[in-house]
Amino acid sequence: MENQVKMLESGIINALKQVYDPEIPVNIYDLGLVYEINIDNKSNVLIRMTLTAPNCPVAEDMPGIVRDAVKMVDGVKDVVVELVFDPPWDQERISQAALLDLGLL
User: Fold this and answer.
1) DSSP track, the chain
2) pTM of the prediction?
3) Tens of pLDDT along 35-87?
4) Which CATH superfamily includes the segment(s) 2-101?
């Protein structure tokens, strides 16, 4: 079971890396916008994520975009995306790879 969850989580992360922030040319996972990925024993997924700013122009659309991307992962049953703004996002959450892509390293 643990192996199956790890494989599912890997597929979910890959799907999240296909979703890009509209203002910064980096995927939402490497930007650090995804705070939590929970997978229950029935392969239902809860994603807790934030946006770069609460007034982000895609604030209404992003949960649906993320949900649709994760639902495409083989084995995922259902997906709930929860937007949270605490803790607030900051650039400290950006991965090393994304910092390199952005020329910030």
Assistant:
1) -HHHHHHHHHHHHHHHTT-B-SSSSSBTTTTT-EEEEEE-TTS-EEEEE--SSTT-TTTTTHHHHHHHHHHTSTT---EEEEE--SSPP-GGGS-HHHHHHTT--
2) 0.91
3) 999 999 999 999 999 998 878 778 889 999 999 999 999 999 999 999 999 99
4) Fe-S cluster assembly (FSCA) (3.30.300.130)
